[in-house]
Amino acid sequence: MCHSYADIILPLAIKGRLTYSIPVNLQDIAKPGVQAMVQLGSSKIYTGIIGKIHHEKPDLDNIRPIVRIVDPLPVINEKQLIFWKWMSDYYMCSEGEVIKAAIPGIFFPEGDISMHVSEKYTPRLVTFIRLAGDYSEKGLNEIRDKLRKAPKQLDLINTYLHLSGLNTKTEPRPIKKTLLLRKAGYSPAALQGLVKKGILQCISLEVSRLEDKVYETEPLNRLSITQHSVLKSVQDQFLHRDVLLLHGITSSGKTEIYIHLIEEQLKKGKQVLYLLPEIALTTQIIKRLRKHFGNITGIYHSRFSDSERAEIWKKVAENDIEKGYRLILGVRSSIFLPFNNLGLVIVDEEHDTSYKQNEPAPRYHARDSAIMLAGFHEAKTILGSATPSVESYSNAISRKYGFAELTERYGKVRLPEIILADTREAYRKKLMVSHFTPELLNAMDQALARQEQIILFRNRRGFAPWVECSECGWIQLCRQCAVSMTYHKAEGNMLCHYCGDRRPVPSKCGNCGSTGLATRGFGTEKIEDEIKIVFPSARVARMDQDTTRGKNSFSRIIREFEDRRIDILIGTQMISKGLDFENLTVVGILNADSMLNFPDFRAHERSFQLMEQVSGRAGRREKQGRVVIQTADPANRIIRLVLRHDYEGIYRIQAEERRTFNYPPFCRMIRIVLKHRDKMQLNNFSGRLADELRNYPGYHVLGPEFPVISQIQLYHIKTILIKIEKQRSLSGAKEKIAGSIGRIRKMKGSGGLKISVDVDP
Questions:
Q1: Which domain holds residue 685?
Q2: Maximum C-alpha span of the chain
Q3: CA distances (Å), 590 to each of 100, 230, 415, 455, 687, in order?
Q4: Integer distance in angstroms from the first to the last C-alpha of the chain?
Q5: 3-state secondary structure string across 21-53
Q6: With bands split at pLDDT 50, 70 and 90, how would you rate the model's confidence at 256?
Q7: Helix axis angle, 603-615 relative to 647-661, nearest 10°?
Q8: Which of 419, 420, 510, 737 has the fewest CB atoms in 10 Å of its CB?
Q9: Residues 369-393: tens digit of each pLDDT
Q10: Which helix or strand (DSSP H or E) is residue 176 part of?
Q11: CATH number, position 579
C-alpha cells in the first residue's frame, strides 16, 4: 500500500515544513489547509496547517504520524498558502511566523502529550425559550385560561407570544431568556414555573459574538461631475492595468469613488478588501459603508477578542453570499483573511507608516503585500492618498501604475488657511501662554465663540518626555533601555515606551540628591491639563494610546466629537488621518520641528504628509478651516511647502535627494538588526557579518552602527543597512544574506545573539 505524507506548517519560527505520515483512518480527511495536531519533540503537541500531501518518503528513520485532524474543513485556502509562501520568501522569515501572524491563535490548540488537548475555540451558547409543544390557537387560549390565577406566569406567556411574533403566519421563534425576563420585568422563578408545567422549554443555541444588527440600506450618493470623470478614468485604466494610484487632495471625495467601485465588484459576486491604517478610521467609514452595503460588511482589527476574530474569519471564508462577509474593512492584518473570490483591494492613505509591521516577523508592508494578494486573485488594487509615498508616486509617473487625480475639494470647499506661528519669537517677546502661541490661542478663542470644534496635534503621548534635575542635569533613564522614561501624570508613574517598565516618580535626583526636579518637554497629557486651565469652560478630550486601550474607546471618542460633546480634541497621529468632522474648523500643530529633525531618510516626507493630513481635517464643509503650525523655524522649506499644499514640490525634492544618495525607490534596501546582552560580542559578530556582506559586488553596506536607541530590554543593538542596486536580483541578494547570517549563527558563542531581517525597512 502507498503511504501518504503531509508537510505541516507549524506556527513557530522554525525553518521549512515538517513531514508527518498520515494514518489510514485520517487519509480521507487530511487535505491542504486543514488543521492537524502533531507531536514535536518528546512531549509537546502542536496544531499546524497541512501545506501539501504527497507520497515521497522522507529520508528519516522515524516518521511520526499525525495525532488527529482538528476539523475536516480547511481553515485556509489554496490562494492563502501561495500568498503566505510568497510572503515568507520575500520578507525573509519562516512560513510558521507568517501563519502565527495570520491566523487567530484560537485555531491552534496545543498542550502536553500526557494531557488531553482541548479546543480553544468554543461556540457561544445562549439560553433561548420556546413553546414546549405545537399549540393551536385554541390550545394557547386554554393555557391562558388555566393561568388566570398565576398572573405573573400569564403575563410572561403573553410577553413571549408577543416577542416571538405568533400573530404572524410563521411559527413562533425562540426568544433569548434574558430578553424575555427583561421585557416582562420578572425574575427567573416565574419562568421556571412555566417550564415545570411543560408549557415553555429552555434550549441552548449557538449565537454569534459579532454585532447582529440588521442595517437598512440606501442607494449610493450621486457623484459630482469631477468625481464621475475620475471614476470613469479609473475604470478605463483598470482594463489594462492592475494597480492604480488615486491622488486626491484632502476632502476631495475619494471615499465616494471607492464606494462606487465596491458596488461594481459586489454586483459581479466578488469580495472587496478596504484597508485603512488606523482602527480609529474604521469607526467612521464603517457607518458609510453599512449605509449602502448593510450586513455583508465586516470589520477586522486587533481589538477584537480571539473568538471574535475566529468568527469573522469564518464569515469571510463563507461561500454563501447571504451569510458571509463580501466587503471587509480592516487594518493591515486583514490581508491574511481567507478571501475566496477577491475582486478589488483598496489601500486608503497608502503612504501611512502604520501599514508597515516592525515587530515581530513577518516584517511586511501591507500595501505592497496587498498588491501581491490582489495579483494572486487576479483582482485590481487602488491606492489612495492626498500625500502619496515617494515610491507609489514614482511608480505612477513612470507608468508602472495607473494614475488618476482629484484636485478640488468636494462641493468646492476651500482648502484651509495655514498660519505659521514663530515660537522662538513668541518666547523671546514673552507672549507664549504655556505651549501656545498668540496666533493659536486667538484662532481657538474665535472658534469656541462660534461653537466650532478644534483639534490639537502633538505626536508624543504622556505628560512630559523626561524629568530632569535642575542642579546637575540628571535624567531618569530606563533600567533596561537606553532611553529616558516618560512621566505619565494620570498613572502617577514614569513609563518606558519601549519595554513598558514602570517606576514611581523620583522625589529627588538620583545623582546629586537635589529635590529640584522639573518636567521637560510636553506630551498630549500635559496639553490636556493646560488647555483646561486656559479654556476652563471648554469640553476637552484626548485620543492617544493611553486613552484608547479598550475595544470601543475609539468609536466612543469619535462619536462624542461628532455629536459635538467635545470642543477640543488633543491627540497623536491617530487623529491626523482621514477623519471627517463637519464642525471642525481649527487645527493646531504644536511642535512641527520635532517631526522634521529625525534621523531617517523619510523624515521630511513623513513630516509633510503628517502636517498636510492634519491640516486636511479642518473646514471640510462650508466654513473655511484654519491651521496654525507652531515652529521655531518658519523658513523651513518643508513647512513652506505645506503652506502652499505643494505635494509636487515635496516629491521633486525627495526624488532628487534619494537619487543623489541612492535611497528607495532608486535602490532596494534590507536592514539587519543584531542584538546581544554582551556589547563586545555584539561588536564582534556584527563586524564579521558586515565584512562578509561587503565582499558581494553590487551591494553597498552601511554599518554596523548603534541606532538612536541603542539598548532595549538589556539587549545592545547594532544595525547593518544594505543597499542593493536596482539591476541586481533581489532574491539572489536575499540568498547571499541568508547564507552569511547562517554562518554567523554557527559561530562559537553566538547562542545569545538575536538577528532579525527587515526587507524594505
A1: 667-759
A2: 96
A3: 40, 36, 20, 11, 42
A4: 51
A5: ECCHHHCCCCCCCCEEEEEECCCEEEEEEEEEE
A6: very high
A7: 170
A8: 510
A9: 999 999 999 999 999 999 999 999 9
A10: strand 175-176
A11: 3.40.50.300
